[in-house]
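User: I'm curious whether this sequence folds into something compact or stays loose and floppy. Could you predict its structure so I can see for myself?
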Amino acid sequence: MNLKTILKKTKPTQFRVGETLYSASPVPSIMGIVNVTPDSFFDGGKYNSTEAAFEHAIKLVEEGAAIIDVGGESSRPGSSSVSEKEELERVLPIIEKLAPFKKDLHFSISIDTVKSKVAYKAMEAGADIINDISALSMDSAMAQVILETKASCILNHMRGNFGTMQQDFKPYSNVVQEVQNELRISAKKLIDLGVPQDKICLDPGIGFGKSLQDNLELIASASDFSEMEFPILWGLSRKSYIGKIPALETSDRLIPSVVSAFITALGGATIIRVHDVASTFESFKLLEAFRSYESI
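Assistant: Here's the prediction. I'll summarize afterward.
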């Protein structure tokens, strides 16, 4: 296989968010992470105020983020849940402050939550996307909220819960096939309710109840996920699988995160969720330049 084959344009896979269509072609859109939490694995506490979170979000948009993902509860392995009240107090002020800037700065807002009431209130405050990392499994009312609010949504594959997902998961016999099948089941629940398929984005859930080998196999199979006829999001940024790779144990994980994003972009990813927007944006501009070359 030559380089031109590897770099060829992927088929357009569109994710509809309001009047905006996010596509895998020519390169994925970037989702920038804004954690309004004291215990996020990467930037916990750094943006744990409305003003700091707002400034960081605008900076990410200026660096190339098309979506800002706001989270008020850490999902790192072993983390503890927070109350609905506390989560709302963390996320609503930043969403309300960001919402008036969406039109002029051309970005969407995503709420990262497993709680249906938090999702509902966030949509009222100006969010456009509900990012449910439990793929509807932790709150039975989430599917109805997605339907009622007309939200676009992201369903992330996970087995277990935040506290146990890295200890209690059963080994996969075929991780790619099993993750795809379980995501399809979650998506079908929404489609059966009446949620349009192009408003449902699937996330294979790197690091959520999976071994190093599972994570590497999923990433290497990015093109297989892009054949599922759903938009696909990959969240790879700074995750612990990188530190489990020999010789990368002490890495700051920046370069491996960008390389992982590039690999999934080659495989047809629609959206990449990252902490380091500027570096990822630069790598995607390079890919776009290669793909626009007339002989590719």
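Summary: Residues 94 and 198 are 27 Å apart (CA to CA). The chain has one domain: 3-282.
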